[in-house]
Amino acid sequence: MSSIKADVELDCRGLSCPLPVLKTKKTVDGMTSGQVLKLISTDPGSVNDIHAWTRRTGNELVNHEHGGDEYTFHIRKK
Amino acid sequence: MSDKQKKLVIIASKGTLDWAYPPFILASTAAAMDFKVVMFFTFYGLPLLMNKITAQVSPTGNPAMPMKMPFGFLEKFNLPIPNIMKSSVPGFEMMSTMLMKRTFNMKGVATIEELRSACVDSGARLLGCQMTMDVFGFKKEQFIPQAEIGGAATAIEEASDADISLFI
Question: What is the CB-side half-sphere exposure of residue B65 using CA atoms within 13 A?
């Protein structure tokens, strides 16, 4: 769903666990409530990890999609 | 998401480069998931609090450790190295350490220093074991400034109301 407008983008291509989660946390901390982060990762483990992170922290995982080697997540800051 | 903040306590007791990773990976991730994090460094884990981390891999007596080249065609092969060679060839530990650091770097794994900084920046409590300091002759000045000093009672008190307690 490329129709979702992202306010901030975070490129985690090539990074392994736990860096995508750590960088997501740091980036979301710097955003304001309601803003949307677009995160791109190549780590297959990040699918479960980002789901877990959003559940735990209460931020909303708007959607995630998988194309080629890349995983794209849209996260709305609570 | 629950209302009460969760808490993770980790006792880090190992000091080789490979074993330095799990405590810092889990602690930094828990902190990123809004956990309160306490790390207690004891015995061989204590040097992980030092300003400069000098942890090395010790392949000797570590039979499950794959010896892999980080690049090239050798990456496909797991090379079993006999203990006699791991322990008697000069520089084998240094080479293993270099290979592991290089492989981790190529695979996009953070360094121990980066993960420790993430823990410190997120407000994790890092405790050094006083008894280990006395036994092995460490001074608080050798540790990062955020390190605190404590003993078993401090670790147990922290663990007593933790949601997750790990001994690594």
Answer: 21
From the candidates A4, A17, A22, A52, give the one annotated as an active-site residue: A17
- In a domain? residue B118: yes
Mutation target for A interface from B6, B8, B25, B105: give the one with most A CBs within 10 A.
B25
Interval B86-90 mean pLDDT = 76
Partner residue facing B34 (CB), from A43, A52, A57: A57
pLDDT at A16: 94
User: Has A12 been annotated as catalytic?
Assistant: no
ipTM greater than 0.90: no
Nearest in space to A76 (alpha carbons), one of A59, A52, A64, A63 = A59
Nearby residues of B99 by Cβ (< 8 Å), 6 or more positions away: B67, B68, B69, B70
Would an 8 Å CB–CB cutoff place A51 in contact with chain B?
no
Stated length of chain B: 168
B97 lies in a domain? no
Report if residue B149 sits inside a domain. yes
Note whether B32 contacts A18, CB cutoff 8 Å: yes
Q: What is the number of structural domains in chain B? A: 1
B91 pLDDT band, cuts 50/70/90, is confident
Closest residue in A to B117 (Cα) is A22
Say how far residue A24 (Cα) sits from the centre of its chain. Answer: 6
**Is B121 contained in some domain?**
yes
pLDDT at B66: 67
Would you call the peptide bond into A18 cis, given omega within 30 degrees of 0 as the criterion? yes
The domain made up of A8-76 is a member of CATH 3.30.110.40: yes
Q: Is the pLDDT of residue A7 over 80?
A: yes
CB contacts, 8 Å: A56 with chain B: 1, 33-34
